[in-house]
Design a protein that fits this description.
The protein is an alpha/beta fold and 308 residues long. The chain has helices spanning 16-26, 65-80, 110-119, 152-161, 177-187, 229-240, 259-265, 293-304, and strands at 7-11, 34-37, 43-46, 55-59, 85-90, 125-129, 145-149, 167-171, 191-193, 196-200, 203-206, 217-225, 245-253, 272-275, 287-290. Helix content is 29%, strand content 25%. The protein has a 6-stranded parallel beta sheet. A 5-stranded parallel beta sheet has the order 1-4-5-6-7, with helices on both faces. It has a two-stranded antiparallel sheet with strand order 2-3. It is globular and about 60 Å long. The relative contact order is 0.13.
Length: 308
């Protein structure tokens, strides 16, 4: 049996559509877990085939408690039934912005603590897509191979497909500016950053922006859009600095609460560009979504040596 034939690809429930796309890129079919719910709300999972001696690949998002727990159950189940290896791809990591706690605050840095829970189930390999902070990669004792999969190449292809001219990339804060600079290098275009300060959990103030956007199309790039507050402020700063048009791009389209309504009320329509890493995000009258499935498939082919 070849390594590809030995592979079983499955997912937790929220990541199933993306896992299907990844399976298609690899020329495989996603294995469907047997699932049931008992009268008291407990969940039943069973592998539909023998996984002993097989290489498991689990594609799973962890955007809420149930999705996180299901991933842990799948990894632990693979170990229990003696899988040859258990390999995990997490397109969207929940709590990823909570990777540290302020001194004396009593806060729980769940980006770290929850990632440790995943690592403690002993997967062989865990890949993350466009992390907010790479601190979570090191939340284990060195026994697990981790990988950060960047989406810059796919994002660059998407921007090129728009056929824009005279554009500039904008980071909504200095912390993300290195990532934006890397993308600008691929596209051979200028870039700049706004000045953002956070004063509460979901509250930010975006200050001044340089004149680099004057007379250009500004493309604001970030790792995620959660509530859209800082992104909309950056849109305003771009226009104030002389941008002729503004587009919005982020990998993870969380769009919590009334975020979509807020963008529409600001007159922004079909310019939110992002990936399919967050469950349920498809192209519609507001979103223009590209898939990271080819990137994930290439990463798995390289790591598992499926082309041998």
């Amino acid at each position: 049996m070849t390594r590809r034939e030995n592979l079983i690809l499955l997912s937790n429930a929220p990541a199933a559509p993306l896992a299907d796309r990844v399976a298609g890129e690899l020329g495989l079919e996603r294995v469907r877990m047997v699932t049931k719910q008992f009268a008291d709300g407990e969940l039943y999972h069973a592998f539909p085939c023998d996984v002993s001696g097989r290489d498991l690949v689990i594609v799973a998002t962890t955007e809420d408690d149930q999705a996180h727990q299901e991933l842990i159950d799948l990894i632990a189940g693979g170990r229990y039934w003696n899988a040859l290896s258990v390999n995990v791809v997490i397109p969207y990591l929940g709590y990823s912005t909570m990777e540290r706690a302020k001194p004396e605050s009593g806060e729980i840095p769940k980006g770290i603590t929850r990632t440790r829970q995943i690592f403690r189930t002993r997967p062989n390999y865990v890949a993350f897509v466009d992390l907010h902070s790479e601190a979570v990669l090191h939340a284990h004792s060195g026994e697990i191979r981790t990988r950060h999969v960047w989406t810059e190449s796919a994002a660059a292809d998407k921007i090129r497909s728009l056929g824009l001219a005279n554009y500039v990339l904008v980071s909504p804060d200095y912390g993300f500016s290195k990532r934006v600079a890397r993308l600008a290098g691929i596209l051979d275009c200028p870039h700049t950053a706004a000045n953002k300060d956070r004063y509460d959990v979901d509250r930010t103030i975006v200050g001044q922006l340089s004149g680099a956007v004057r007379g250009r199309v500004a493309i604001i790039c970030d790792d995620m859009i959660r509530t859209g507050g800082s992104m909309l402020q950056t849109v305003d700063r771009c226009y104030e600095a002389g941008a002729v048009d503004v587009l919005v791009m982020a990998t993870h389209l969380v769009l919590a609460g009334d975020a979509r309504r807020r963008f529409r009320e600001r007159g922004i329509t079909r310019i939110i560009i992002g990936a399919d890493t967050y469950p349920g995000r498809e192209s519609d009258d507001l979103l223009d979504v590209y898939s990271v499935a080819p990137l994930i498939a290439r990463e798995l082919e390289h790591y598992l040596r499926l082309t041998d």
